[in-house]
């Protein structure tokens, strides 16, 4: 029998496909260096424009200007307003099916870094979908005023689910977000393609998630 009591999910890049795919296409179209947008986002990651947007410290107009300044400082100006539409992703049905199966047997939560104007972006429809209603608890950075990888946001989730971190599995597509979860005692899975991640998750929960 598994000792896991809860599975906690990221949304973008886990339940839905990664925005990094859109970032790559944008970079090719604009003649930008490979992974340039990820480099901008990784520079001063806790206080940059992206971080402040996801904590609701910036509106989209302020983000547009701040991202332009940060990208310009790295050699290529990109407006923030041009980046936001790239967040749209496709729902991964196999992940949703796994979420449904797990929900029948244990607790499930979602911690997502998002922003107040998410509803105005193509990704907004994902947040309004019935998928979000499958989780026992959802924490959105824009509402919490905290964002991953702040350890407090993970503890907010374990408290809400009434489980210890050691009894949780956490899935995310970013290593920087997995580290604090692992430090708290959670089992972690870095998500790329859905199937390998679900095969790993099966080992933790102790029952089938794939047909």
**At the first level of CATH, what is the class of the largest domain?**
Alpha Beta
Q: Give Rg in angstroms.
A: 17 Å
- The average pLDDT score comes to 92
By secondary-structure content and strand pairing, the structural class works out as alpha/beta
Low-confidence parts, pLDDT < 50 over ≥5 residues? Answer: none
Oligomer: single chain
Going across the biggest sheet, name each strand in turn: 3-2-1-4-5
In CATH, the architecture of the largest domain is: 3-Layer(aba) Sandwich
What gross morphology would you assign? globular
Number of helical runs?
11
The main β sheet shows up as: 5 strands, parallel
Domain count: the total is: 2
Order of helices and strands: EHHHHHHEHEHHEHEH
CATH fold descriptor of the largest domain: Rossmann fold
DSSP, total strands: 5
Give the helix proportion (percent range). 40-55%
Structural write-up:
The chain has 11 helices and 5 strands, in the order βααααααβαβααβαβα. The chain has 211 residues and is of the alpha/beta class. It folds into 2 domains: 129 residues, Rossmann fold (3-Layer(aba) Sandwich), CATH 3.40.50; 68 residues, DNA polymerase, domain 1 (Orthogonal Bundle), CATH 1.10.150. The protein has a 5-stranded parallel sheet with strand order 3-2-1-4-5, with helices on both faces. Strand 4, helix 10 and strand 5 form a beta-alpha-beta unit. Helix 6 packs parallel to helix 11. It starts with 5 loop residues before the first strand and ends in a 6-residue tail after the last helix. The model has no long low-confidence stretch (mean pLDDT 92).
């Amino acid at each position: 029998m598994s000792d896991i009591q809860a599975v906690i999910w990221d949304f973008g890049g886990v339940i839905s496909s990664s925005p990094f795919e859109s970032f790559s296409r944008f970079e090719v179209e604009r003649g930008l260096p490979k992974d340039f947008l990820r480099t901008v986002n990784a520079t001063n990651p806790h206080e940059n424009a992206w971080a402040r947007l996801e904590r609701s410290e910036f509106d989209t107009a302020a983000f547009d200007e701040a991202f332009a300044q940060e990208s310009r400082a790295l050699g290529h100006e990109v407006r923030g307003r041009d980046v936001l539409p790239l967040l749209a992703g496709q729902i991964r049905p196999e992940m949703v099916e796994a979420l449904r199966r797990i929900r029948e047997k244990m607790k499930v939560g979602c911690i997502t870094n998002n922003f107040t104007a998410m509803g105005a972006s193509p990704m907004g429809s994902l947040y309004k979908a019935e998928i979000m209603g499958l989780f026992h608890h959802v924490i959105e950075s824009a509402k919490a005023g905290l964002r991953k990888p702040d350890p407090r946001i993970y503890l907010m989730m374990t408290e809400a689910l009434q489980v210890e971190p050691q009894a949780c599995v956490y899935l995310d597509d970013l290593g920087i977000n997995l580290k604090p979860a692992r430090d708290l005692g959670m089992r972690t899975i870095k998500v790329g393609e859905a199937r390998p991640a679900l095969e790993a998750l099966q080992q933790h929960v102790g029952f089938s998630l794939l047909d």
